[in-house]
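Form 12-C: Joint structure prediction
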Amino acid sequence: MMGAPIAMTNDNPSQEPTTHPPASRIGLALFGVYVLLYGGFITLVLVRPDLLAARPFGGVNLAIAYGLGLIAAAVLLAVISIFAGTRGPRS
Amino acid sequence: MLHSTSPLAVGIFAAVVAGVLWLSFRLGRKGQSAQGYFAAHGQVHWAVNGVAFAGDYLSAASFLGICGMIAFSGYDGFLYSIGFLAGWIVALFVIAEPIKALGKFTFADALDAKFNSRGIKLAVAISTLVVSIFYLIPQMVGAGALVTPLLGLPQWAGVILVGIAVTFIVVTAGMVSTTWVQFIKGSLLVFFCGILTVLILGRGLSVNAGHTGAIDMTPQVRTVRPDGTVLVDGQPQSSDHDLRPVGTIARLPERFGDARSTGPLGPLAYLAALEDSTVVTWSKKTHTDDQGTHETFTPTERPAAELLRPGGRFKGLADGTLAGRLDFASLMLALFCGTASLPHILIRYYTVKDAMAARKSTVVGIAMIGGFYVLTLYLGLGAMTSGALDPTDENMAAPLLARSFSETLFAIISAIAFTTVLGTVSGLIMAGSGAVAHDLVQGYWGVKLTDHEKVRIGKLAAVGLGIIAMALGILFKGFNVGFLVGWAFNIAASANLPALVMLLFWRRTTKQGIIAAVTVGMASSLGWILLSADTFEKVYGLSKSMAPMPFSQPGLVTIPLGFVVLVVVSLLTPATQLLPESKHAT
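Section 2 - Result
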């Protein structure tokens, strides 16, 4: 079944793969947030490119503002992941 | 264009390269065991590893390729910056810690940890080599492009110079020296690009930058005759008679009145002022007759706003064709999925001590890489309006932008760009070297190797890969390096990501499923690229219309194909029993 990452370790021979506790779900939730932001950007470029010419941010157009926003969001989510205590399998 | 060399530039360049090689030689003693050679003993501090991630990842494609693409095509180059960084989110939240927990030396270790299968080792080793070689091509092309204006050497000489230097770095100390070379290069690159951006903002925008009077709008013709000699507007090319540099502001926004320059601008004000300006770009037309190949560069005035939104390079976005839009979507998917599938990035997770250090180093890497990609926007736009561009060479936009400020800055930026190539190429050769020694010779063929023998085979493989890289770098001269890296991302994402993700998230994954996904993903993406319109036109010299593939970037088809193949084959084969101690069995 697809879901949270399977905890696989080869350091403990007796360990069967187990679904990981909620901590790793925070990481996947942050990942989901970014996928939505990134997917939204691609969709906008493909479907309504005319909207990207709008200039809502101090004379900077939406294409550039969204692009810079995606970069900032990646950095922000990465930092949040440290403070939120996310962990993946075997952390 | 011909570029003059200066003793200062050569001196700075030589000092930087000599420094890097000295460091590598000095660190050579620390990496003599297999664990030291391939994984730096797993003792690299997470902060150092994070900066080294940036050094590893910010390749010639990121620096030379993206800057050139923005300078020549506008916003579409920035799409690469966005996509390249987005891939790190996959690496951070999905891949980083499992890779660290499951592997030891190579990417194959992680995929094979559950199964101990020779088939997986073989498939992943081949995939690692294919991706590494495709990624090596643009790095070597970038190296050649740099050396020509800096040292006055032909392109092939630059490629060979890098090949020899990198092989030396890898052979002397493996991952230890590679890590420090990447750390130094990553730090220098971000720092000096930051300085260059401050200078761009300080200079602001100027009409006919670097020149006085009216802008020369006369078309220029460059002819390469059958005997190889070059003519410019019908006369032999020389330092006194050459193509004019291009790319400048034609008119500033009305709010600046009659001023020819805006003066210093803040980061947002710079973008806003450019958006309201008119720029002079150029169109290029090529035709061939019995006199040779003629390239005509025609200056063209256009609103800068047109260049600050998508469609400059991805023509399908501007004209709305389905194939063009699919090409764009496919590339953005490949960039998103590709980073976490690049072997030379994945092996860096083995150089830190534990999974937490792997995650922290990824966060440091994302912060540095993200900061750098913001700078690329200003570097590219600064180059576009600098009046210093060589219309025949996109890859030289960033160094020529630096030259428009000073010869010293040009030398420093060129030297850093060269170390950029050194850092990335050494990482790629390390990944390939590990695939040969650890996965193929020891893992697949089952040759019993002592620690010393394994390192020796790794070094021999590094020499072989260095030679292959040099040959391909010469063959692919003239390609935009960012574009070429897009291919490597497509192959990596198609071959490696489905197997890696499904291994982590789907219990029913079998070894046959992994082997099939890696093999089909790699073969289908590689085959698609070889049959694409871009390859037909730029590599085979054939008409685009003869290409059977509907668009050039395969990821949109071949990445899902990898997932489908893995699921179908896994369901058709018996569930695999876990092999908990497989890491130690290899």
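Section 3 - Comments
Chain A touches chain B through 55 residues (CB under 8 Å). The beta strands of chain A are 6-7, 18-19.
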